[in-house]
UniProtKB/TrEMBL annotation:
SMART domains: HTH_XRE. It comes from Rhizobium puerariae. Pfam families: Cupin_2, HTH_19. Residues 31-85 form the HTH cro/C1-type domain. This is Helix-turn-helix domain-containing protein. The keyword DNA-binding applies. Signal peptide: none annotated. Keywords: DNA-binding. It comes from the Bacteria. Residues 1-10 have a biased composition (Basic and acidic residues). Residues 1-21 are annotated as: Disordered.
Length: 219
């Protein structure tokens, strides 16, 4: 299957997830459906979310894969849950709510940052977003994809080693069992420190008003 330019350098997860085999409906199709149901123009969605009209058009036409930071901004501006944009969410968090995610059964999504598996994606309106992410090695002089979104984030290295980049600090290697808790509003990124993908657990606690742009905005 031929890939367009936006998919050319997509990472492949250690369990076989790729951009060619997403779980659920593509983000562009979901975004288009939401616009149609609400009779919103691209300009109106751009006004609500802070994502440019050209970027929204590329997303809807599956010419680019939005970064996590963009998904968060879209969800916030459209008044939906992050997981709704990647095909999850069936019930809202409430008293005595519980959702179990069996191994390998999270909702998957791939962009240039890595191959994501959103956990507890069947539960909307939760305060935290847990994800398992397979981080590829950045070849040669390839620039590490950076992200910035208004959140507190906790990352735990499940396997392999990752190089953690965060402004204004020097890059640091995190090994299996290491963890970091940081302010995601600072530009940050990860790269595997070996030829194989590394795997991390990321838990984000998003803050209101996520309007930060970064180099990860359109991957």
């Amino acid at each position: 299957m031929a890939r367009n330019n936006g998919e050319r350098d997509m990472p492949i997860a250690t369990d076989g997830r790729t951009a060619d085999r997403p779980v659920g409906m593509p983000v562009g199709e979901i975004l288009s459906r939401i616009r149609f149901e609400n009779r919103w123009t691209l300009a109106e969605v751009s006004r609500r979310t802070g994502v440019s009209i050209s970027s929204l058009s590329k997303i809807e036409n599956n010419q680019s894969t939005p970064a996590y930071s963009v998904l968060v901004r879209l969800a916030e501006g459209l008044g939906i849950d992050f997981a709704d944009l990647i095909g999850g969410s069936t019930q809202k968090f409430a008293s005595a709510a519980r959702v179990i995610t069996r191994a390998g059964e999270g909702t998957t999504y791939v962009n240039r940052m890595g191959a994501y598996e959103a956990l507890a994606s069947g539960l909307a309106a939760k305060s935290m977003q847990p994800m398992v992410i397979d981080i590829p090695r950045r070849a040669g002089g390839q620039k590490t994809v950076r992200s910035a979104h208004k959140a507190e984030e906790f990352v735990y290295v499940l396997s392999g080693e990752v190089i953690f980049f965060m402004e204004p600090y020097a890059p640091i290697v995190l090994r299996t069992g290491d963890s970091v808790y940081f302010d995601s509003a600072s530009e940050h990124g990860f790269s595997s420190n070996s030829e194989l993908p590394a795997r991390i657990l990321s838990v984000c606690l998003e803050r209101p008003g996520t309007t930060i742009r970064s180099s990860e905005d359109i991957s």
